[in-house]
Design a protein that fits this description.
CATH superfamily of the largest domain: NAD(P)-binding Rossmann-like Domain
Helix content: 25-40%
Strand content: 5-15%
Protein name: 2-hydroxyacid dehydrogenase
CATH topology of the largest domain: Rossmann fold
Keywords: NAD, Oxidoreductase
CATH class of the largest domain: Alpha Beta
Family: Belongs to the D-isomer specific 2-hydroxyacid dehydrogenase family.
Number of helices: 12
CATH architecture of the largest domain: 3-Layer(aba) Sandwich
Pfam families: 2-Hacid_dh, 2-Hacid_dh_C
GO molecular function, one term: NAD binding
Length: about 325
């Protein structure tokens, strides 16, 4: 059968086509799945979506009416999918439960070091042959405190790097990770972690309970010269509150690979028409802020694992198997 894949990046396309060769045909589209593009899927039993797809009630209804029965999401996160509606419509939905945690953890550290050592500003200056050091003063992270919110596989990988820097480790999670404890991590409540950490990195999923995990009160409780990094999900931070704190001159640096209103912006070229999002437009003007477009996972290793798992999810569906990657437990008929 032909699989229709939405939101495929140019680097990703040849990897997808190579992986699916000999199994199923795959047609790759660079457009994202939303209410305007859902009709394209008509006649395709199986589709694949990216993390920035919008699979709300209307989109899912359109997909089901067009004959779609299986959705293979090429990401770990699935907060963009209304699973209750999908189940009611009889759709099977699967995700990628696991891929290289190092890709995201290493990128989180890239953001941390970029804002700490003013790399973006320094690189921009040297292009103009301005070699002054004014305004580029960073600080050693050795001996300082790293707070890790979420100590699963990615949080653990981040903590291992922090341990290599010689940092004190504080952790917060619903359960302790023994590997992090072995590194010397002390598990504390969120308020203490935010108050004592020089560097705070977020590695938790976006759920109703974690939306705006870092809100106005939490931001105010952090050190004035703290570094805040988010490479997980944009909705974990109240961006309006963050902008308010930045306006007051707080924080040594903020590194964001995600943004709570990134859908319809990230992965697209908006350089000509500009954007209407005043909050994001203001956010990127702060000299101590670096924003990237949800690229932490984007390594050949991680993308390769994501595609391999997506292929396996499709094969499991077409051959009547079920795996741990299935989010909506509606199995296809094997008759």
């Amino acid at each position: 059968m032909e699989i229709l894949a939405f939101g495929v990046q140019s680097d990703e396309r040849p990897l997808l086509e190579k992986a699916f060769a000999g199994h199923h045909d795959i047609r790759c589209l660079d457009v994202f799945l939303d209410e305007d593009t859902a009709l394209i899927a008509a006649g395709h039993e199986v589709i694949s979506t990216s993390v920035n797809a919008s699979l709300n009630n209307r989109v899912l209804q359109t997909l089901a009416a067009g004959g779609t029965q299986f959705i293979a999401q090429r990401s770990t996160g699935f907060n963009n999918i209304d699973l209750q509606v999908a189940e009611r419509l009889g759709l099977t939905v699967a995700r990628v439960s696991y891929y290289s945690p190092y890709s995201v953890a290493e990128f989180a550290w890239t953001l941390a070091m970029a804002v700490n050592r003013r790399i973006v500003r320094a690189a921009g200056r040297t292009r103009d042959f301005d070699f002054r050091l004014d305004g580029l003063l960073g600080r050693d992270l050795h001996g300082r405190t790293a707070g890790v919110l979420g100590t699963g596989k990615i949080g653990e990988a981040f903590a291992r790097i922090a341990h290599g820097f010689g940092m004190r480790l504080l952790g917060w999670d619903v359960a302790e990770n023994p590997a992090c404890v072995e590194l010397g991590m002390e598990y504390v409540d969120k308020d203490r972690l935010l108050a004592e950490s020089d560097l705070v990195s977020l590695h938790v999923p976006l759920l109703p309970a974690t939306e705006h995990l870092i809100g106005a009160a939490q931001l105010k409780s952090m050190k004035d010269d703290a570094i805040l990094v988010n490479s997980s999900r944009g909705g974990l931070i109240d961006t309006e509150a963050l902008v308010g704190e930045l306006r007051q001159g707080r924080f040594a640096g903020v590194g964001l690979d995600v943004y709570e209103a990134e859908a319809g912006l990230f992965f697209l070229d908006k350089s000509i028409q500009g954007i209407e999002d005043d909050t994001l437009a203001r956010l990127v003007t702060f000299p101590n802020v670096v924003v990237t477009s949800h690229q932490a996972y984007y390594t050949v290793d991680a993308v390769g694992e994501i595609i391999a798992t997506t292929l396996q999810n499709v094969l499991d569906y077409t051959e009547g198997r079920r795996s741990e990657n299935v989010l909506v437990p509606v199995l296809p008929s094997t008759t």
